[in-house]
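Supplementary Methods. Inverse-folding protocol.

Structures were first reduced to a discrete structure-token string of length 260. This string, shown here, constituted the complete conditioning input.
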């Protein structure tokens, strides 16, 4: 059972969204996954942990080039999809298990690489998650995160987080790039590489994917249309061919755990 009300919300949301989430272009895009794997550049003998793995695409990609990959997630429905895809690809060196990103069930230094993708904005304590990822990574190993990011201006970030949370109650807070990088410094990691990305979201598809209730979806549309007029979040909404769109920004950070 989850140990907080928010984790129960996350489980409920992603149980409902699991199949749709697994085919979302942002999540499933093989080019985005390959770019992160290449940025980390794991050795063939590496043991890799994907934290909050969802449908497991990243763990599976590491499994194709590394000795072993483990995916951990809080939601059984997503783990079932990940296991199904593992069997389809015939990867015996990849496994998936249920677990909490804030309390990783692994020994200190157990992995050569720990990675988390598109999940920090769903956790209550991102610093705690990154600290755990650093703990279970060996000295000189790699710790990497890719996630959505918001404006550096707090009022603008708050505006984005307001419509993100209305859309999906499992959303906690999208960090700014400097906040995200600051987490790495706070847990003693040394940043070696980072890069940004952008995804264009179709508002109606985005709302449908999360099964947002009609009353909340209406509020999201109002906020996004106001954003288009007044430039309140930096997400630059626009109307095209009868539909609303906006841009999600992402940041990927690859760091090294210091020590011997």
């Amino acid at each position: 059972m989850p140990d907080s009300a928010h984790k129960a919300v996350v489980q409920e949301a992603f149980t409902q969204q699991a199949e749709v989430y697994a085919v979302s272009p942002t999540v499933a895009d093989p080019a985005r996954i390959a770019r992160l794997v290449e940025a980390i550049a794991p050795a063939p003998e590496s043991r890799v942990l994907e934290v909050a793995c969802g449908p497991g695409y990243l763990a599976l990609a590491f499994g194709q080039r590394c000795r072993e990959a483990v995916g951990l997630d809080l939601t059984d429905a997503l783990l079932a999809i990940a296991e199904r895809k593992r069997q389809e690809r015939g990867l015996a060196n990849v496994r998936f298990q249920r677990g909490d990103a804030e309390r990783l069930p692994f020994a200190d230094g157990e992995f050569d690489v720990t990675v988390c993708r598109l999940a920090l904005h769903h956790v209550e304590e991102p610093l705690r998650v990154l600290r755990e990822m650093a703990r279970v990574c060996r000295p000189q190993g790699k710790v990497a995160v890719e996630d959505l990011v918001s404006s550096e201006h707090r009022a603008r970030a708050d505006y984005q987080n307001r419509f993100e949370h209305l859309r999906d109650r499992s959303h906690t807070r999208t960090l700014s790039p400097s906040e995200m990088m600051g987490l790495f410094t706070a847990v003693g990691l040394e940043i070696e590489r980072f890069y940004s990305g952008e995804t264009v979201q179709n508002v109606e598809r985005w709302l449908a994917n999360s099964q947002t209730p009609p009353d909340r979806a209406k509020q999201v549309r109002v906020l996004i249309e106001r954003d288009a007029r007044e430039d309140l979040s930096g997400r630059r909404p626009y109307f095209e061919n009868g539909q609303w769109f906006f841009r999600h920004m992402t940041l990927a950070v690859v760091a090294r755990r210091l020590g011997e």
